[in-house]
Every structure is written in C-alpha cells, then in structure tokens.
Amino acid sequence: MENKKWSIVSVIGLLLTIVFAVTCIAPFVYMILMSFTQAQTLNLRFSDIDFSDLSNYSYVFGKSGFFGALKNSAIVVVCSCLFNCIISSMAAYGFEKKRFPGREAIYNMYVATMMIPGQVTMIPVFIIMKKLGLLNSYFSLIVLIINAFGVLLIRSFMAGVPDELLEAAKVDGCPEHKIFIKVVMPLIKPVLISLVVFTFVSSWNDFLWPLVSTTDSSMYTLTVALSLLKTQYTANYGLIMAGAAVSFVFPFILYVFLQKQFVEGIALSGVKG
Amino acid sequence: MKQRRLEAMHGYTYILPSLILIVCFSIIPIFMSAFFSFTEYNVMNPPKLVGMDNYEKILQDEYVREALINTLKYVVITVPIQTILALVFAAFIAVKMQNKAGEFLRSVMFIPVIASAVTSGTIWRTILGTDGGIVNNILGVFGIDAINWLGDSRTSLISICIVAIWKNVGYFLVIFYAGIMDVPKSLYEAARVDGANMFQQFFRITLPMLKPITSLVVTLGIIWSFQVFDLSYQMTGGGPGYSSVTIVMAIYNAAFKNYKMGYACALAMVLLVIVLLINALKQHVFGEKEG
Known about the structure:
The complex is a heterodimer of chains A (273) and B (291). With 273 residues, chain A is mainly alpha-helical. Helix content of chain A is 74%, strand content 0%. The longest helix of chain A has 34 residues. The model of chain A has no long low-confidence stretch (mean pLDDT 87). By secondary structure, chain B is mainly α. Chain B has a single domain, classed as MetI-like (MetI-like fold), CATH 1.10.3720. In chain B, 77% of the residues lie in helices and 1% in strands. In chain B, strand 1 and strand 2 form a beta hairpin. In chain B, helix 3 packs antiparallel against helix 4, helix 3 runs antiparallel to helix 10 and helix 4 packs across helix 7. The longest helix of chain B is centred in the first third of the chain and has 35 residues. In chain B, 44% of the residues are buried. The chains are: A mainly alpha (273), B mainly alpha (291).
C-alpha cells in the first residue's frame, strides 16, 4: 500500500519536473521558430515558418547595427576574460603565496567590496569616466567587469598549490615572474576556465552599465542593441526574435560544450560568502 | 631580513593592478556616492551641498515610494517561490533521478540562467503579448479571456516575477543539488532502516542538513531581487503607470534621465543600506543558529 502511494507521488513529481523543464526550453524554441517568420502578429502558424528565409537575420545584421554591436560585445568579452584572468590570478598569487604587511586587511577590503551592489558605485564611476572622456570606450566597458570575485575564487583554489613546489622552483634558480607564469598558471587552469566562463556570461549579459555608459550607437553592445530593437520595430516580432536569437546563441554554444565549467563558474559565484 | 622585504615587494607588485582597479572603481566610488548624496549635482556644474535635502525628498517622492513597494512585492513573490521550486526539483532529481535523464533535466533547467535578462525579457514580452501571444492562446483553450499581462497595472509586476522565477530556479537548483549530494548517504540508509518514508527523509534529514545552503539561497535571492532592473526595463519599462518601477529603475531615471546625480546617489545609498542590512541579518539569524 505504502509503496503504491509512493509511486503515484513519484509520477506526479516526474511530470512536474518534466513540465518545468519544457517550460524552461520552450521560449527559446519559440524564439528560433518565430525568427524564421515574417509575422507581424504573434500568432505562430507553422506554415509561416521558413527555415530557408534568413531575411530577418540579414536585416538585423545589415540595417539595425547588430553587426557592430556583436563586434563590440565580442571585443569586450574577450578582453574582459583575458584581463580578468591575468589581473585576478596575479592578485590571488600575491595574497596567497606572499607575505607582506597589511595583507589580510587589504584582502578583507576585497571581500567587503563584494557586498556592494554595482548600482551604488555606477553613478560615481559614470562621472569619473565622463570627466576622463572615457565614456563610449572599450576601456570603460571592460574595466568594470573586473572585480574582487575573481581574486577570491582563484585564491581559494591556489591554497591547494603546494608551497614546496614554488620553493623547489626558486632553489632551481627560476626567477620570480617565471615561477608565476610557468609553475603557478598551469596549475590553476581549472579555476581559470571557470572564471572565464563566469566572466564571459556576466560581460556578455551585462546591460545596465553599457546602457548608461554608451551614448554613441556605434559603441552599443548586443544587450543594448537588442533592447533598442523592440522600440524601433515594435510589431516586427520575427525580426526582434532574430535579434534575441543572436544574443542568445553564443553563450548557449559555450554552455553546450563547457557545461560542467559553466555550472561551476556561475553557481560558485553565489557561494563566495 | 632582505629576503622578507623582497617577498613583500613581490606581493605588492602582484596585487597592484587589481588593487588599483578595486580602489578606483569600488572603494572611492562608494565614498563619492555617499558625498554626492548630500549635494545637488547635474555633472555640468560643480556639486552644491544641500545637507539632508535629498533624503527628505526621497521620503516624499511618490515615484520612489511606488518603486520601493514594487521591489518589496517582487522580493516577497519571487524569493519564496523560486527557493521552494528549486529545492523541490533538486530533491526530486537527487532522490529519484540520479541518472542521465536527471542530468539532462538539470542542464535544461539551467538554460534560462545563461540567457541575459534582456533576451529573456524580449522573448517573454512576445509570449505574453495580447495579439496572439502563446500564453493567452493557451488560456483561450480553457475558455479564459485574454489577459493584457504587461499592459495592465494589476498584472505587469506579477508577469515580471514569473519570468524572474523561471530564470532563477535553474541556478538555485544547481546549488541545492550540490548541497543534497553532500549529505552523507548513511543518514538516509539509517532512516530507511527505521522505516522513514520519502517525505520524512526530506523533512527530517535533507531540510535540516541544507540549512546553510538555504540561508545562502534566500539571502542571495533577496539581494538580487532588490537589484532587479533589466527584466522590468525590457518587459514593461516600469509601466503601465508606475506599476512595475523598481528601486534601481528609480536610480537610473534620476541619474540618467533627469541628471539629478545627487538625488540618485541618495537613492543608491538607500539600496546599499538595504543590501548591507540583509547581509547583517543573514549573519545574525543563520550564524547564531549554526554556532
């Protein structure tokens, strides 16, 4: 009796789980299907779908400046990932493997900055950038992506790098910077991949700061361009969905190939405290 | 001695680039924000000290009051639902589906997490649309009249909450799932020997063991929710009327639409205080119970 009741509960649970999973993916399927129609209403008729018709995509890229936005997003993402990895692993190495006065005090300051919402510092940073003439620059888009999180993440991983190894390299006459590049960097590769994935997604999806700091349409990132698309082409749903699909496809491809690192990189960002 | 000094110098050199960025773009701006909040400042003219004026204005500003109320509603709706859904799905998959199928379902539920809020908002705007959007079509099958989800001030905020929940569950599910995997298997075995059923195991073992993780998920959920902007900007633009304006949207509008930087900074300080309070509360409430 008990067993039978359980199996019913389990079936219901299974059904709910599947329903939710379908709900998670259906909007994206809808987006793709819609992007291949010329629909001016939302009624999606399967007869309208024509996968050979790429006109929405060519229009999005050609006329509405998506190509430039895609290029900007790509530049920002690649540079953010690169600089975040270099700068954060250097700092993590300094904090974890070097002793210097004020080390823990400075590190605690780093931890404290993690609690500050980005929207609080955004206005002064905007003013600084404006005064320096750096609004509408790649620099301003990239530099804000780099924060204390990467340092915290890498430092906790670097604690597992044995000091003896670094000592041994030193005894062998390996100069300091080479120890970092040749010994430390290869050892922390797993955590760097997680950081790259995290940085990729957060800078690719970043919206408020690009919205605020780019006034020149040639500097828009994809999220800003997509957000404008809906105001420019209110009822051209096929076109808007093509734009959404372009903004979604790159993180999605990365996710398909690097699923484990994705889940770690993104989920760990919450477990920092 | 010389060795020591050399090591310290190396240490400073390694942290220097990062430290410059943190100081310039996190630490100094906090103090600037605090300072500007006591001034009237439109970027063109130098800031003018006005004392507590901005904070007094906040108390009388109807727009801000609506934004605060909406954000609070948003927190109260999304956080419990997303936490419970994530926990239940995580527990179910961990207990019944520790196989390829379960893994697949988890990966699928994570997909909304990787899409940007702007992308999600764009898609859901069309799905919830009135001229033939899917949701209204489905409701139509059950004989329910079309609802103007985003255009009606009674449903606009709820719609945003639904999308937020949809987007967040996969994230928290991953965290809960990892937590459940860390619960020692022997506890469940012992419980089964004692004849505990699935529900008893969930409430007596899983839930208590997950307390630290639940506290994290709830705190994180609350803090994120207080910062909601992208979704509401993209889906409703804060409307209709003030019905889906959020705190961050009020900050954005004050600073970048009306160029009242001082006022916007005062609002930002309010947000900062809220976030810090939640963090402190977390330490207090959950820190004590564990210790």
